[in-house]
Design goal:
366 residues; Apoptosis, Tumor Necrosis Factor Receptor Associated Protein 2, Chain A; five-stranded mixed β-sheet; globular; disordered N terminus; MATH domain-containing protein
């Protein structure tokens, strides 16, 4: 499956980009094209098609640069809002000698016809020595458009003015203790050629605070229906997170994956993009005592994977996802010693241990 890609060099804090290609696209928007176009679902509801806001820390930057021509570059997790997904990556190759950022958009379950979406994009590369010197890139009214009916992924490359050799010098400011910090803010403005169900904006505070359960993630606040939280959660008054939830780590999009599940939206699966979201669901459900949502997420994974990947088996051990372990065992014709050793059986619950021992007695070691 192909990936369309455009490449634009740009300067920080520059005025909004308006390339000739995007102008030609906009000029066609008044045509008699029968494809569906939607810009809003509810009046005065901000970003109804999707607001993707993330904060990522990139480790071992010097190592990535040193091996830039031999290994793949750093990639973020995918994060998803209904039928639209976004990810981004840092592109470091010798022939450019400059840091580039790839923004990748994806339409889930595409209708196999041409599609396009319009967005506003903001990227911040943090200067870790002086925040005022951080690089801020604003790109407005940018179109992602497929030029092939079978393309699901569209990539847009932005070349920064940061030289790779400069990043090796931590006095330069953008790398500290081997880490870089990248922040993105993507707002979908318009979608054509595909449908997008209404997206909840969890950053929108309710009119009456007593109806909201507040989750403070980093320096942002997210809001969940108090009634839904009480329905799903087995927390009791006096529990640590009964009134609200706080985590000092900034959101990278995974908190919204969790809140979508709480509000009854399908718990999405998408290979590369699902891992972080599922880990967040399992972690938060453990903290907030929401066993029913864990069971929903487990069922999706069991149905999606015939051979459940190790990442999810590790999560099952950590967060007591018994259904995943039982499904994995039921599909095994034999058990390998190294598989059991890798799972760290001693850290499992008694029920999981019993299930593995029973399976070994049934099919034997391999």
């Amino acid at each position: 499956m192909g990936c369309g890609q455009s490449q634009i060099a740009f300067e920080p804090s520059a005025p909004p980009i308006s390339s000739s290609s995007s102008e030609s696209i906009e000029s066609d928007s008044d045509s008699d094209d029968p494809r569906p176009s939607r810009t809003a679902y509810l009046e005065n509801y901000p970003d109804p098609l999707g607001h993707f806001k993330s904060f990522f820390i990139i480790d071992k930057v010097s190592e990535i640069i040193a091996n830039r021509d031999n290994e793949s570059n750093w990639n973020a997790l995918w994060f998803r809002k209904m039928n639209i997904s976004f990810s981004h990556s840092l592109y470091m190759k010798s022939f450019t000698n400059h840091l580039a950022i790839d923004i990748i958009g994806e339409i889930r379950n595409p209708p196999f016809k041409k599609w396009r979406l319009k967005m506003n994009l903001k990227i911040i590369i943090h200067n870790l020595s002086n925040e005022d010197d951080s690089l801020i890139y604003n790109i407005r009214d940018e179109w992602f458009e497929s030029d092939n009916e079978e393309i699901r992924y569209i990539a847009l490359r932005k070349i920064t003015n940061l030289r790779l050799d400069d990043l090796l010098d931590e006095n330069f400011g953008f790398v500290k203790n081997g880490q870089m910090k990248l922040e993105t803010d993507i707002r979908v403005l318009q979608l054509e050629g595909a449908d997008q169900p209404m997206v909840m904006n969890y950053r929108l505070a309710p009119e009456d605070p007593k109806h909201a359960y507040t989750m403070t993630i980093g320096d942002e606040k997210f809001y969940c229906s108090r009634a839904l939280m009480d329905f799903h959660s087995q927390m009791e008054k006096g529990d640590k997170y009964f009134e609200s939830y706080t985590d000092s780590k900034p959101s990278n999009g995974e908190i919204e994956h969790f809140l979508d599940g709480v509000h009854g939206f399908p718990v999405g699966i998408g290979g590369r993009g699902a891992r972080g979201g599922y880990c967040a669901i399992f972690y938060l459900c453990e903290k907030l005592k929401m066993r029913a949502l864990v069971q929903r997420a487990e069922l999706v994974l069991i149905q999606y994977f015939h051979d459940i990947p190790n990442f999810y088996l590790d999560s099952a051990r950590m967060y007591n996802c018994r259904r995943l372990i039982h499904a994995w065992l039921n599909r095994k014709d034999s058990i390998r010693r190294k598989e059991v050793k890798r799972l760290k059986v001693k850290k499992m619950t008694g029920e999981m241990m019993k299930a593995i021992v029973k399976k070994v007695f049934e099919v034997g070691w391999k």
